[in-house]
Write the structure tokens for this entry.
Amino acid sequence: MESRGGYSPVITSADGSVEVHLEVDHPGFSDPLYRQRRNNIARLSLNYVPGDPIPYVEYSDIEHSVWAVVSKELSSRHDQFANDAYRGAKASLQLPTESIPQLSDVSKLLEPLTGFTYQPVAGLAPLREFYGSFARRCFFSTQYIRHSSVPQYTPEPDIIHEVVGHANQLADPKIAEIYLAVGESVKRSETPGALEFLSRVFWFTLEFGVVLDHGVPKAYGAGILSSVGELDTFQSATILPLDFVEMGREQYDITKFQPVLFSLGSEAEMYDRLLEFYSIYGDDYFEQISAVA
Ligand SMILES: [Fe+2]
């Protein structure tokens, strides 16, 4: 799907071997060790059966150092550019900053706060499965980390995005409630069009949403909050007032900086408007919106 098209496909062959297909411009394309690593981690995630212990990934020193470098870079920017709710939730979650946490560790930190737990996924999960899992307070997460040659860039959502971006969001009880509502809205979105539209609104809200703080845009979206480049540039984007119909029209590319963002006027408005939308969204709402569009 367009909305999550940056994922590198995971291909399982008849002999059981697993290969993550990287594009030629992927930073890890010419690194055989990295590619082997991606294949091994994908195989671990693929073998996961819900209910079993989360597969343990033995991360290398290089991988841990990528986490540490990026965590530090993001942290200094969060102080300046993240909205209050995210900063408060991040302080309560207390993710490790020097080493990559196992997904089981993320769950241990997150579950007491909002009931959400993490489950591994090798790559692209179908939209219905991915968003639908929120209704069970579950978040599907990749376990690999970006290539060490460019720690500030990843063409696809890696564990830094999934955990620093989403787990910190999910540590906020009101945001967690919005995720639950997203999961419930999937059940009312039986048509492919309604589901695709839902994923677009999710993209422009919980991935790339901004909220105005005394007129200054602050990020609450995980896509911005997990990207050094986005945090450095999002305030220069074209920022429009929240408009769900417009979100359906706006083009976006997961591999590029977002040129157009949508804002809410305050934290309270962010919670209220998003919860209201996701609590009623479904096929009927999509039909009405489509008629307007
Ligand atoms: Fe995401």
Q: What stands out?
A: Confidence is low (pLDDT under 50) at residues 1-5. The domain at 2-292 is CATH 1.10.800.10 (Phenylalanine Hydroxylase). The beta strands are 10-12, 18-20, 117-120, 138-141, 210-213, 216-219, 238-241, 260-264.
